Amino acid sequence: MAMATTLLNAGSVSSVTQSSSSGRLSSSKSSVVGQSFSLRPLIPCKPRSSGIRCVKTGSDRKPENERTLLDNASNLLTNLLSGGNMGTMPIAEGAVSDLFGRPLFFALYDWFMQHGPVYKLAFGPKAFVVVSDPVVARHILRENAFAYDKGVLADILEPIMGKGLIPADLETWKVRRRAIVPGFHAAYLEAMVQVFDNCAERTVEKFEKLLDSAQQEGKSEIEMEMESEYSNLALDIIGLSVFNYDFGSVTRESPVIAAVYGTLSEAEHRSTFYIPYWKFPLSRWLVPRQRKFHEDLKVINDCLDDLIKRAQATRQETDVEALQQRDLTTAQDSSLLRFLVDMRGEDATNKQLRDDLMTMLIAGHETTAAVLTWATYYLAQNPDMIAKAQAEIDSVLRGRRPTLEDVKKLQYVKLIVAESLRLFPQPPLLIRRSLKPDTLPGGHKGDPNGYSIPKGVDLFISVYNLHRSPYFWDEPEKFNPERFLKAKPSDGIEKWAGFDPTRGQGALYPNEVMADFAFLPFGGGPRKCVGDQFALMESTVALAMLLQKFDVKLRGSPDEVELVTGATIHTKNGLWCKLSRRKSITNLN
Ligand code: HEM
């Protein structure tokens, strides 16, 4: 368990742009991956230099005699474990020390290139199966979803989220998922666009005030740390939309905000620490960060309990259909909590409601902030993309704030959001543990019948690998929002973007169905994110409102932006940008 926890983030700082290791691809490996796709209508392309950044690979890799005792012990265990009942599954031969000093998912990518789309990674006494194949991902997430649970992730999150959807046991999950999913109905999303507008407006106003002050000093730009700004913005949005609480974090500080950040930081720390220290008896009283964590948790729980009681005191019993048909845009409180409390049906306990709210607070906050951060990271290096987005924003919004109908029309901005999620999926790995023996889809070289997975195996579905796979994406490292517009190639398989918009059935954003699980920004199957449309719209509105008013560029060079991972991929020292008022507004006449 401790090892698994460590694996979530074994030393995690790295520059966003690093040297390529893709020269290590061999033709036999490409056929391994290619064959796995004979099961589906996707066209495998020949892997080419991807420019993927992996630190210690190829000539960088340490010579054998420099490997540590730990590495050798690990390799021995790897060999022992290879005789296990996972058959001929390739084993990652990388040294354990390769994992340190860079995010785990970089190493997992290297091994994907070396060993193919399903391999076993031995780490200490435990083996993990790493999956970078859409067919296998689809099997685990959708076709045989209930043969797996969240494994180590649930262990880490349960003390914070209780029986919220992410760590919940299957029985609880079924009941709560049925109650929560209808809450994200069309009328709710429409009302939420106004909440997104109001919150983004606060950020715009804050920047405008700062620019006014700068102007008085003769400056035309301000330096802003955008990751924190997005974090505040996303917190305000999640508070208002999920439980009708205004954190107001864009403009002020409060004990509740401090407690939320403290709790988020503890969740992050737990996902990156070797030992599950929080499980030690007395740790709560002896370890200062544990004491602080429990104090923070109490502040948030008290706040949520109070909000739940208030919502119950004003309960208006209704049913899902009536709520869905109502216009919520003028309602005093159109939050998800209101929906959960008012809805007819099985009453949840107050503790369960609190767990649900806490889960959505954590699941919906950092993730969205990270999407906006990485979108800005790329836009700030591409003034032509900013200009294109601004032309679209001007023509759709004509100076207004976005409505739901506008969001639908902001095609290019939506693709920017999707492309940011492709390059930086949040989280980069989906974690599962097998609850019973299973057989993965076969078709790989060496496993025509599919690998056997015994009960109790931990699996990582590497969304990062899938999203940057040179087998499915043309120039996978390149930020190219318009790649999603390309259907199957007319000029040869190498140009195919791994994506078929005709399978979308009216979807507003690229999704896993269109890409047949080669694009998985919100997971897939029954455990797919409940807030996917909410998050995509929120990100689109926030970007549109900021680009409507400002130009942005990086303060330093892109290489200076270091990344760290926990549950999400974020920057080590913030995303420092220079913001100025827009130079050119598109002439709409
Ligand atoms: C860009 C923002 C977001 C991203 C990238 C994201 C991503 C994901 C992913 C990948 C999963 C599946 C995890 C797995 O299969 O192990 C998930 C689950 C979940 N997400 Fe999101 N999410 C985002 C925003 C939100 C928001 C805004 C909410 C709620 C308001 C939310 C609530 C949830 C919940 C409750 C689950 C668990 C679903 C279940 O197990 O039934 N997420 N999210």
UniProtKB/TrEMBL annotation:
Keywords: Heme, Iron, Metal-binding, Monooxygenase, Oxidoreductase. InterPro entries: Cyt_P450, Cyt_P450_CS, Cyt_P450_E_grp-I, Cyt_P450_sf, Cytochrome_P450_Monoox. GO terms for molecular function: heme binding; iron ion binding; monooxygenase activity; oxidoreductase activity, acting on paired donors, with incorporation or reduction of molecular oxygen. Its cofactor is heme. The keyword Ribonucleoprotein does not apply. The keyword Transcription regulation does not apply. Gene3D superfamilies: Cytochrome P450. Heme binds at C529. Belongs to the cytochrome P450 family. This is Cytochrome P450.
